[in-house]
Amino acid sequence: MSTPLLAHPAAIGTYPIADAAGVLPLSVAELSLVYDVLTPAACDLARTPWQRRLAVFWADQLRAVHPPASPADLADLGWQCGVWTEQRRHVRRVIALARTGYRYAVLSYDPLAPRAYLDVLDRAVAAYRPRPCTPASGDLRWVLPATGEEFERCRHHDVFVGGYGLCRYCVPWVG
């Protein structure tokens, strides 16, 4: 069973981020803010293929005009058996760096209260345990060489352009 990170209850139009202490409901705009502030930190800290794919994963989140119909959760991060604790440490380093206001200048707006949302995300990541963890578990795409157009950097914002081939900050909504 995975720990929910995001859910899309279409009836109320919010995306709760769950942690052990409860649920913090986030609007699409608030959740987009979380991904906006995580992306530069994730791109700059990424060294391994998994870390680079994490940065692209966040760079691409909530960019489609229509929000996802299915829940996204921490299991979507492609944790790898045997190294997931280091991967979790990396995610928490990214969150910690984003909490400092790191590269918020790339945003075209002043992010309001991202720290509260990042704190909830950090608690959820800290409590998360992928199950089951077997040598064959995990999405192998997350450990393949991280090359290709999605890993090119935007010349204006110096972040990965992502799977859409367009920087999150240059073209925030696609599709």
Can you give a write-up of this model?
This protein is an alpha+beta fold and about 180 residues long. About 35% of the residues lie in helices and about 10% in strands. It contains four helices and four strands. The strands form two sheets. It has a two-stranded antiparallel ribbon. Strands 2-3 form a two-stranded antiparallel ribbon. Helix 1 packs antiparallel against helix 2 (about 50-60), helix 1 packs across helix 3 and helix 3 runs antiparallel to helix 4. The longest helix is centred in the first third of the chain and has 18 residues, at about 30-45. It starts with a strand and ends in a 48-residue tail after the last helix.
What is shown here, in short?
By secondary structure, the chain is α+β, with helices and mostly antiparallel strands. It has four helices and four strands.
Shape descriptor reads: globular
**What class do helices, strands and sheet pairing give?**
alpha+beta
* Average pLDDT number: 76
Order of helices and strands: EEEHHEHH
Number of strands: 4
Number of helices: 4
Strand order of the largest sheet: 1-4
Helicity level: 25-40%
Strand content is 5-15%
Poorly predicted regions are 1-16, 19-24, 68-72
Q: Which radius of gyration do the C-alpha atoms yield?
A: 15 Å
User: Main β-sheet: number of strands, strand sense, barrel status?
Assistant: 2 strands, antiparallel
The span between the termini is 31 Å
